[in-house]
């Protein structure tokens, strides 16, 4: 695969697991320490060599567009205060990122969200990042997938081994292992029962997709709640084409889940020299207080 330069960020979902805050704040703008979820994904795309960011938004998502734009009033105030460190940081994203927006008028599934970006893809292979999958890795996961996609000239999706009791929460793949961490995918099952899961390899929110995936997305029949699922389109694609899965290197946090979101905040805060010791003190005291109450 050549000319990998565009990444689609589906960001039109309702974020119901984080209500009531997501009634007015997009889930993608919830902070991990001091940066919104979506910025971690955008930074990963940039570090992976992608230049064009396509964000699929919906009603109530204007904060995302504002975030990746210049804020002249705020910049003027910070400039007057000579707070150059913060000033440079808030200018960095608008300077580095070329963002296009397309609107998904109804939240009709991940597959439908990606379909909304078809006219901006222009017959090129492209990446997809789900912003609520936060992955801490030395080599960006999208870069890991890109290297394989270029070598094999085929689409690649990110995989992660999950405990058997968790397979019902994920899309699960069936395939054969051809290299260390690399699988040739034969089939996929969306959220299977434990006894029907073909493996414990779960699909995680990073993809390198071919431009003709839109053909298969249009053939998919809507499922529950009228949603079009990307997994169903990938299943159709895999019947006649090679598609691979890569068990990525890194630690993933499900920031679309409340507990996973809290863990991501703690883990990333512990990586901060400024916050680490103070946070450890807070956690130690909280644990001590909790234990004393139970005792």
Instruction: Write down the domain tally.
Output: 1
Mean pLDDT: 91
Radius of gyration: 20 Å
- Overall shape: it is globular
What's the name of the CATH homologous superfamily?
Spore Coat Polysaccharide Biosynthesis Protein SpsA, Chain A
Q: Beta-strand percentage?
A: 15-25%
**Could you say what the CATH architecture is?**
Alpha-Beta Complex
Extract low-pLDDT stretches: none
N-to-C span: 60 Å
The count of DSSP E runs of length 2 or more, i.e. the number of strands, is 13
Helix-strand string: EEEHEHHHEHHEEHEEEEHHEEHH
Main sheet makeup: 9 strands, mixed
Strand order of the largest sheet: 5-4-1-6-11-8-12-10-9
Structural write-up:
The protein is of the alpha/beta class and 295 residues long. It has one domain (6-276): Alpha-Beta Complex (Spore Coat Polysaccharide Biosynthesis Protein SpsA, Chain A), CATH 3.90.550.10. 38% of the residues lie in helices and 24% in strands. It is built from 11 helices and 13 strands. It has a 9-stranded mixed β-sheet. Helix 8 crosses helix 9 (230-240). The chain is globular, with a radius of gyration of 20 Å.
């Amino acid at each position: 695969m050549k000319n990998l330069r565009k990444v689609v960020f589906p960001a039109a979902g309702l974020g119901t697991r984080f209500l009531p805050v997501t009634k007015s704040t997009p889930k993608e703008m919830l902070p991990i320490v001091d940066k919104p979820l979506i910025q971690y994904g955008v930074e990963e795309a940039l570090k992976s060599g992608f230049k064009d960011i396509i964000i699929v938004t919906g009603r109530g998502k204007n904060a995302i567009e504002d975030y990746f734009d210049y804020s002249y009033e705020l910049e003027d105030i910070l400039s007057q205060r000579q707070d150059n460190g913060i000033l440079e940081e808030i200018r960095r994203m608008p300077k580095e990122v070329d963002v296009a927006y397309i609107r998904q008028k109804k939240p009709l599934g991940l597959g439908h969200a990606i379909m909304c970006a078809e006219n901006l893809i222009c017959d090129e292979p492209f990446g997809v990042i789900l912003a609520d999958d936060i992955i801490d890795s030395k080599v960006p996961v999208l870069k890991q997938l890109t290297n394989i996609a270029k070598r094999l000239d085929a689409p690649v999706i990110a995989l992660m081994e999950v405990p058997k009791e968790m397979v019902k929460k994920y899309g699960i793949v069936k395939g054969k292992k051809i290299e260390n961490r690399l699988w040739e995918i034969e089939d996929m099952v969306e959220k299977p029962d434990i006894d029907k899961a073909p493996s414990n390899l779960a699909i995680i929110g990073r993809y390198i997709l071919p431009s003709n995936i839109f053909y298969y997305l249009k053939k998919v029949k809507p499922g529950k709640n009228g949603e079009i699922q990307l997994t169903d389109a990938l299943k159709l694609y895999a019947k006649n084409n090679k598609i691979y899965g890569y068990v990525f290197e890194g630690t993933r946090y499900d920031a679309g889940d409340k507990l996973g979101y809290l863990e991501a905040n703690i883990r990333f805060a512990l990586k901060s020299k400024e916050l680490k010791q103070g946070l450890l003190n807070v956690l130690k005291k909280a644990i001590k207080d909790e234990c004393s109450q139970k005792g």
